[in-house]
Amino acid sequence: MPFIRRLFLLICVIIRVAFLTLLERKVLGYIQIRKGPNKIGFIGILQPFCDAIKLFNKEQVIPFISNFIIYYFSPVFSLFLSLLL
Fold first, then answer.
1. Where are the beta strands (DSSP E) in 27-75?
2. Cβ atoms within 10 A of the Cβ of 39, count?
3. Quick one: which of 21, 29, 7, 10 has its CA closest to 49?
4. pLDDT score at 40
5. What is the pLDDT of residues 12-71, one digit of tens each?
6. Rounded to whole angstroms, how far apart are CA atoms 2 and 15?
7. Crossing angle between the packed helical segments 2-31 and 47-57, to the nearest 10 degrees
């Protein structure tokens, strides 16, 4: 039962964030005098779902002929070096 409550809470938070993002995009569209996310669906209601689908379709591409550890730690190493300097 606690798992279902947590899952329900997580889904509610994700939906709330999606629609707050839609509200933010609409306000920025009105401020900048442009149309904004009104092109998909009825007054932009489907825009957060389209954004979520686009986000979930992006995937991390891992080269097959490479050193796995160096591939993942090279950005961390670059950040460390830039902060060190």
1. none
2. 9
3. 21
4. 62
5. 988 888 888 888 887 887 788 776 666 666 777 777 777 778 877 776 677 777 777 887
6. 20
7. 110
Helices (H), the chain: 2-31, 47-57, 68-84
Cα-trace Rg, the chain? 20
- Determine the pLDDT at residue 41: 67
Quote the CA–CA distance of 40 and 51 in Å, as a whole number: 11
Contact 46, 53 (CB under 8 A): no
pTM of the model: 0.50
Structure tokens at 67: 């050193």
- What sign does the CA torsion over 27, 28, 29, 33 have? positive
Name the amino acid, one letter, at 81.
L
Could you tell me how many residues make up the chain? 85
pLDDT top residue among 74 and 35: 74
